[in-house]
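User: Okay, second chain of the day. Same drill as before: sequence in, structure tokens out.
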Amino acid sequence: MTDNNKLATKKVSSLLLELAIPAICAQIVTLLYNLVDKIYIGRMDGGALAMAGVGLCAPIVTIINAFTGLFGRGGAPLAAISMGEKNEKDAEKFLGNSFCMLLLSSVIIMVSTIAFMNPLLKLFGASENTLPYARSYLLIYIMGTVFIQLTVGMNYYITTQGFAKQAMITTMMGGILNIILDPIFIFAMNMGIAGAALATVLSQFASFVWVMFFLFGKKTKLRIRLSNMKPDMRILKRVLILGSSPFFMNATEGILHICFNNQVAKFGGDLAVSAMTILFSYMQFLLLPCEGVSQGSQPIVSYNYGAKNFTRVKDTFKLALKVNTAVTLIYSVVVFIFAEFFISIFNSDPELVKLGEKMLRLYLGIGFVHGPNSTFQQFYNSLGAGARSFFFAFLRKCILLIPLLYVFPAVLPWGLMAVIFAEPVSDIITTASNAIYIRYFMKTKLS
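Assistant: Same drill. Structure tokens below.
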């Protein structure tokens, strides 16, 4: 059975399992990498300040990664829809144009960040104590931008063709290599936080080589061709429209990090910034399994939508929704009960553990709502309906969360905890609104 026939005919539950398991395994390795990376940094001399330094780099890293969503997640579902319509020519144009734009944007980002590094880090809340750590990490990380951009962005095109195992290898290769290199560079070679950044860049380079080998090879159905790299405004317009939602979600996540870091620094100091870095890591832990399920469902939804097989589209959505809701519910309960343990994994400072425990319970106490919301957002994108996904991303980040980060501390007598309280309130309102709208959307789009 060919991969296209599988997408069209194989039992949905079996197919989703086949495509999602490799993606979830890859996400687990990513989770472990993020965990181990910060554990190593937290165990350095001055680990708490080093952790804060990495946290200050997070907004820049997140904004850089937003471009992979703009051109990768913006183009990959459209390529799958074109494949379902038997239009292989346009599918390869989406791939080639995305590759070109990822290459161009990564060079511009690298040059701009190096030129304005110190002002950016100070804008994001760096103090005299944390600036040296943040600068050491970011200077090396930014040099590998092109490898990181192309690896992540092009891997979406491997997934969208149904090659889940190959996409898994991309992520697992980088994650495992990073885990191995971290202690060598950080401790054995005494490079400290710069060693963590170098390990990340070298690991992503290895993944980049693998992705390029595959997409220029014989097994892929969609191949990178020089003729398709010439910008085509008809293609790019569709990519930019669909990619605007994941781009906005990621880019505003960087802005959100800045707002959180500034507010928690104001009400809790450098220690609170360190704790916030840990909280962001556990939020990633929550969302990445959902990302794995979404990556598994996207090829099925997009291909069958292009083929007008709406029953399979609906069945895939319902199954993904159930799985993501269950996973995030279990995760939220475990983190709430064992919050102290999860904070102490990163650093044993009693003050940091005590503060981080309280912050984590409030921050992820109702984290299970991210399962449904993540499924809704991915479903819109899989059908090429980027405007809907963009609206709910805008609602959560710009209308609710960012303003509430400043409003709640001004009206509630909880100080630092009032800042953290903005997260669960925004999440509940957004998910409830999304759940109401998705019913109407499915009736109009899939009939």
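The chain has a mean pLDDT of 89.

User: Thanks, on to the next one.
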